[in-house]
Amino acid sequence: LALVDELEDAGCEVVGPFGRGSAALDAACNTPPDAAIIDLVLQDGSGEDLALFLADRGIPFVIYTSWPPCAALSAAFHGTPWLTAPCSLSDVLAALGHVVHAPGPVA
Q1: Are 35 and 62 in contact (CB under 8 A)?
Q2: Whether 55 contacts 74, CB under 8 Å
Q3: DSSP readout, 30-75?
Q4: Rounded distance, CA 18 to CA 34, Å?
Q5: Are 55 and 79 in contact (CB under 8 A)?
Q6: d(CA 75, CA 52)
Q7: In the chain, count of helices (H) and strands (E)?
Q8: 3-state DSSP call for residue 84?
Q9: What band does 105 get if pLDDT is binned at 50, 70 and 90?
Q10: Per-residue pLDDT tens for 80-101?
Q11: Dihedral (Cα; 74, 76, 81, 85), 10-degree rounding
Q12: Which burial class, exposed, middle or buried, applies to 12 when counting CB atoms under 10 A from its CB (0-12, 13-18, 19+)?
């Protein structure tokens, strides 16, 4: 939750965090975010389904997880900034800035 506080202090409007992918999907359906930060370790499975959902809708996202980058994961992650937690707020903000200002869909 420290990351949430840091993001809010930096001026971001945060919805979440969501420990379950199903809850994040519901929230994204009801109010599509400008961008998302996804942890791949969720209570109800991997964040891969959430990433695919966001990618299909052109919603940019950043991976923020304790897992190291893995080429075996879905193509939904191709070209997506991958931050290994913990990392600095400046790294998170830079990654978000990159995906939000990237031309076209991010996945």
Answers
A1: yes
A2: no
A3: HS--S-EEE-SEETTEETHHHHHHHHHTT--EEEEESSPP-TTS-G
A4: 16
A5: no
A6: 9
A7: 4, 5
A8: strand
A9: very low
A10: 889 988 889 999 999 999 898 8
A11: -50
A12: middle
Q: How far is CA 2 from CA 9, 17, 25, 39, 57, in A?
A: 11, 11, 22, 15, 28
Output the pLDDT for position 60: 92
Neighbours of 64 (CB within 10 A): 23
Residue 8 and residue 101: Cα distance in Å, rounded? 20
**CB-based contacts of 62, cutoff 8 Å, min separation 6:** 35, 36, 37, 38, 80, 81, 82, 83, 92, 95, 96, 99
Cross-strand partners of 60: none
**pTM for this one?**
0.83
Instruction: Find out whether the peptide bond into 60 is cis, omega within 30 degrees of 0.
Output: no
Of the candidates 56, 72, 93, which has an alpha carbon nearest to the alpha carbon of residue 81? 93
